[in-house]
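pasting for ref. prot 1 ->
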Amino acid sequence: MLTGSDERIQLEVSLSGRFNASLGQVPLFKNAERSRQVISLFVFLLLHRFENISQERIIEALWPEDESDDPVNALKNLVYRLRKVISCHGTLDGNDCVVSKNGTYAWNCDIPCYIDVEEMERLWQNAKDNKLPVPERIDLYKKALSLYRGRFMEDFYFEGWVAPIASYYQNIYMNCLYEVIKLLNEEKRYEEITHLCEAAISMEPYEETLHENLLKSLINSGKKGRALEHYNYISKKFYKDLGVKLCDSIRCLYKELINDLKSSETDITTIKEEMNDPEAKGAFLCDYEIFKCIYRLESRTAERAGQSVFLCLLTMRSTIDINRNDVIVIAMDKLEKIIVSSLRKGDVVSRFSPTQFVLLLPLSYENGEKVVARLLDRFRQEYKNPLIKIDVNLEPVI
């Protein structure tokens, strides 16, 4: 079986994130894109290397919905190609690596093999042992997390057999993360929680629990300014990308943070410096929760002073059914820049939904109409898409 001088040469395979495989630190597949089906067979056999797999089971995984006219011969050809790739490496004999018997195929388990996701799972199982000291459990969890570099075989994710396995290892990763966060909180090791959450968010940006844990770790470590910046960032991102508001627990955390920042004792000079924004230009763009507070304040001021303030709702629509979400996203980004740069510093604007902006304009109705008309004229000049239309609703605050 082994043709090289080192009889214990190890096969090393990375399946977390982008696929990579090597024998003795030499890449096994030099052109992964041209070898997609060969790689799929290789990984499928590796993950089930402790069993003999029937032809039918492999065909069902690799050629779902009868994608091949002659799947049996297609599989035989794929096995031949895999054996050839391994043999060309010069260390192993492909015929000994991929064993066939009575209509089944199997990977030879005598070959030493290291697979990152399996090692992650092993460390996770060990870390769950409550009898171990907490620092040791934390180290095991962190080692497991370090092996996860993204979705299982992310370049192959849309292949049917990959998705459930990807979900399985993603769940292990998230379980590891949440368990170690509990332990780190008990130890008051908040900086480590921050780093782990930031790394996880780079791979799972829409997992709200990650953002909630990150905000808590920043607050607990005294970095309330960073926590506020992160909340504003994700609030905008969730509106823009998903069209949803953040969950109630995160919004409650935000309100507590704002109240806590207000209640901290400081001198008036520091307060002025913190509130001053020398680079501010154009309208004030803010989170919708802040917009509501400003709206309530402006409505009270307008009622008392007899001033004229109008609320404007801009709703973006398409003249035909546009299935491509990126068209609306690009158009809304453009409209946001035009609104902020076109309006005055005293005007307030917020994203209300994926296709709507709300504006607070301290103007008369006639002037408000003129301002909005100029704004829309500029949008049509800079974003020439005849399929996009913007509806305008303008009403007095009181």
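and prot 2 ->
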Amino acid sequence: MANSVTKDLTVGSPMKLILGFSLPLLGGTLFQQLYNLIDTMIVGKFLGKEALAGVGSTGAINFMIIGFCMGVCSGFAIPISQRFGAKDYVSMRRFAAHSIYLSVLFAAVMTFLASIFCRQILELMNTPSDVIDYAYSYILIIFIGIPVIYMYNLLSGILRALGDSRHPVIFVIVGALTNIALDLFCILNLHMGVAGAAVATVISQLVSGVCCLVFIVRKIEIMHIRKSEWKIDYSYFYTLFAMGVPMGLQYSITAIGSVILQVAINGLGSDAVAAVTAASKVSMFFCCPFDAMGSTMATYGGQNVGARKLDRLGTGLKACIKLGVIYSVIAFVVLFFFGDKFAMLFISASETSVLAHARLFLILNSAFYIPLALVNIVRFMIQGMGFSMFAILAGVCEMAARTLVALFLVPVIGFTGICLASPFAWICADLFLIPAFLHVRKQLKKMFRV
């Protein structure tokens, strides 16, 4: 049976449960972004603007490949959370075993392909010649570390599926501290340049993944997979594939639009790339609550569908949206008045043009954080309910929106078009996701005859 570190989200006040589950997740995402910020600060301050732009120019391709890994692992966790909610622990462990098989296969193939073709992709993206070597040195090491990324995201996803959002945070903190120490050592002492930042990131992910593994082995008895449960059953592969691949593709398809947009940014020069890099790092830090809300709703939706408590889905969604709206307003006010000050963490005060562009990016993006909150909350709820294919369609909406902006708006209004790309993408995704949620809830009611 379940133990004290797991949490049942099928009983009790949805608002209290969502807050209690999402706050530890928020702590974890904040620490992840913290060491990403420190990565960027060290690169920008000690290696210069070109190195900063080089690392920043890999953001879209990084998101396309690594986002697929994260999405797949999140999808694998959905049937695990559903079986946990249904108290079917044997099937839950069998899904965990089969997700390990698939993760090993995916990691091997992706590491091989991404490592071989990353230089060509950077060239196709029109990466500025003065930063492409920095970009390649950084992203190649990140791609070599893809198996580590699978390890951490799969194991932390399993813990969250069981309702434990606290311990993954502890392990992220351990990884963050490791990353910061290795950043300073590799860049300042070993003089490894941007490669040092990448090595520190991969090792820190490995540390967090090992911590998750040791914790599951020692503390989560219901997840101790029996010998018979390792036996391959292709029906489990089919279910995991149907859940995981659409979620992975959702990230990658969304990222295709970001890659096309990055080409447009690269065409504006290294100053524009540096401004977007710095502003994006600040924005990602402020967007951590949205990520936490999304992960919470995936687990909440999965467990309640597994327990067939469909009436709790709408109640939980409304509660989370209220939290998202309140936070969005606060974040906009803060970034409107202090956005340029945050950007100065990465950019010298003498780079006035870069700072001005970064401030504009932060203001225009944060003005649309409410649509972003809806994207995360509704999309992950739908995924937790078991309808991962809708994630792909939402990703297509975002990809199309960013592509249209990159091709038609940026050539006309320049950097302002870059700033409006994501808000336009979020709005387009919401126009699809909100009706999609109503549809899938209706489908579940028919399936369960509620």
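Residues 175 and 204 are 5 Å apart (CA to CA).
The mean pLDDT is 88.
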